[in-house]
Amino acid sequence: MKFTATPEAKSSVKLEVSASAEEVAAAIAAAVRHVAQHTKIAGFRPGKAPRSMVERVAGSARLLDEATEILVEQGYREAVIATDTMPLTSPKVDAAPVVEGEPYSFVAIVAVPPEVKLGDYRNFTFTPSFEEPDEKKVDAVIDDLRDGYAKLEAVTERGAELGDYAIIGFAGYRADNGAVIEGGAAERMPLVLGSERLIPGFEAQLVGAHPGDTRTVEVTFPDDYQEESLRGIAARFEVEVHELRARIPPPLDDDFAKQVANVQDVAGLRAEVLTRLKASAVDRGRHEFADRVVEYAMDNATVEVPEPMIDEEVDGLVDELARSVARQGISFEQYLAATEKSAETLRAELRERGERRARTLLVLSAVAGAEKVEVPEALVDDEVARAKPQAQGQKALERYLASERGRRAIRASLRRSLVVERLVDEWLDAHADAWPAWGPARPATPAGE
Fold first, then answer.
1. Tens of pLDDT, residues 167-222
2. Domain with 374 in it: what CATH number?
3. The domain containing residue 156 runs over which residues?
4. Whether residues 309 and 208 fall in one domain
5. CA 378 to chain centre
6. 183 in any annotated domain
7. Side-chain-facing half-sphere of 171: CA atoms under 13 Å
8. pTM over 0.90
9. Beta strands 234-248 and 165-174: pairing type?
10. What are the start-end ranges of the H helices in 18-59?
């Protein structure tokens, strides 16, 4: 095959691919074998039928379409390598069907990395900030641990308090005309008082009630309430408290300390929690500092982000949102309906974020190039191995991880992460006093980085 690459506007390249008549014939033969392998033809084992039979069953148009796909896929792959083109996104291909016995050509428009004019990305004047955890934060973590082991016990000697577990029954009525509120009743609803599960102000009016008590609760539905007909409507609920239980945490003693951590006593537990809080605070401070380093590099760089790259990042943001709502048991279509948005409106709202993500990728890639950061293949192997369990059963994702395209994307992501880590580490090496004295010892920067 023959290839030519011509620069186009907006950081794109036009790849022109030409194949000889002999290469077209080879692609048609490959198409025949592929179709024969995946088509049931009476009297022949899969893949063994002659072309005349395959063509009679599948049709000549299908064979030529298959041959076209084979030539385009092979030609594009070889053209990218031969012309040293680095695609940012999938190409836009203009390809007519092949004609048997004739040479063939097609055109692919490929978005490529634009020129990034780097400014200063090292001489920043800001410094990292590390917030030292105090005893109050230790107390809060231990309180959360105790709450996680708390038991529910019936309340008999006092009224309800926020944080209590209650089972209530209620019926709701409109305040303006006394009409029953449809769906506004329940016989036995479990509820943690103060969780704000119900209408704002509802749960607070149950404070002080004892099991068996009834209360009249007066509230106003919020203006953004999910049922449009009730928005802003004043209502009255007749509520009966059926059961009331309090969460009783275990005592903070040596037995509890041994139960929740590999320590001997409460003092050991407090020391363990403080150590973890310090490590977390340092990690958080370092990440925030790294984010500021990235922002500094971006503020001083100049780059025009190609539209296809923005579109691809917006696609990624939409996919992330769809997966997030799916984990809550909501389909993407239901989410759009609930938010009263179209897919186009949502994409428009996400465009600014998508463009920023794309710009970040381009600038960090340029910084990595300037710093001559290389990624060991062992790191790519580790990342692929880490991703494989999550991809199990998802054929497309499994193929992607096994492909050079997938490895190239992983390699690029690791390269960007490594260059940021290098900038942070080198700054900290030069400013040892910036590391908090109360924090864990800073790991030594690996040699050669």
1. 999 999 999 899 999 989 999 999 999 988 899 999 999 999 999 999 999 999 99
2. 1.10.3120
3. 151-248
4. no
5. 25
6. yes
7. 4
8. no
9. antiparallel
10. 21-37, 51-58
